[in-house]
Amino acid sequence: MALQKQHLMLLIFIVGLVVSFRPAQKTKLEGAWQLTEPSGNIVMLAIADNYLIQTTYEPARFISTRGGVLRQEGDQLKLMVEFDTQDSSRVGQTESYQLATTKGQLSLSSPAGNRVFKQLTELATPLTGLWRITGRANDAGQITTMQRGPRKTIKLLTGSRFQWVAINPQTKQFFGTGGGTYVLKSGIYTETIDFFSRDNSRVGRSLTFRAAIDADEWRHTGQSSTGGAVNEIWSREK
After folding, report:
1. pTM, to two decimals
2. Which helix or strand (DSSP H or E) is residue 16 part of?
3. Computed over its alpha carbons, how large is the radius of gyration of the chain?
4. Tens of pLDDT, residues 196-222
5. CATH 1.10.3720.10 correct for 31-119
6. Among candidate residues 149, 167, 172, the one with its CA nearest the CA of residue 92
7. What is the CATH number of domain 129-236?
8. Most C-beta atoms within 10 A of its C-beta, which of 58, 167, 192, 193?
9. What is the DSSP annotation of 123-138?
């Protein structure tokens, strides 16, 4: 009897370990959400792999962006800010929002006010999620692995939206961003730029790349908007 009790206690201990190391559940809020302000500015929320990016732009001009690690606790949304172009002092802070969802709508409330976003209709693709650039080809075509550090370039994709950001959360620096819509079909990845922080004149351009996806690695090859060769490795950020 004592031996059975010991086995039972051991089983409970093992189950406890498994639960404690289980990855965080993905939020049900994943996808793209949009709000159009009275001024005509578009506010876009992109959520995937427990990461959120909020970007405000108008048809021909980038305005601002912010984002970070997301955690949902019941009707509370917790955001650990990794970048904020309007106020870098917020980087490193955790913000709380009261959330409410109805069919196709997301309401976020904070002391600053309430905002209601409409969900975009889209289907997940093999690229949906959060990626980080981990390798780039040199002039000889050889891939150089990037050492992980506080400075990083990440790319968040929903079923139809993409956005990359270059940041350093440790120093609270922001280096640039661009985003818009994308289509993935038969190994061909095409993105159309809706905003670009460094050059508004690139808005509206479409770029086509070859995409080879192998588990958690994405080989991205083609030409950039300036005509330069692109040969990159992106890895899922976990």
Report:
1. 0.86
2. helix 2-20
3. 20
4. 999 999 999 999 999 999 989 999 999
5. no
6. 172
7. 2.40.128.280
8. 167
9. ---TT-EEEEEEEEE-
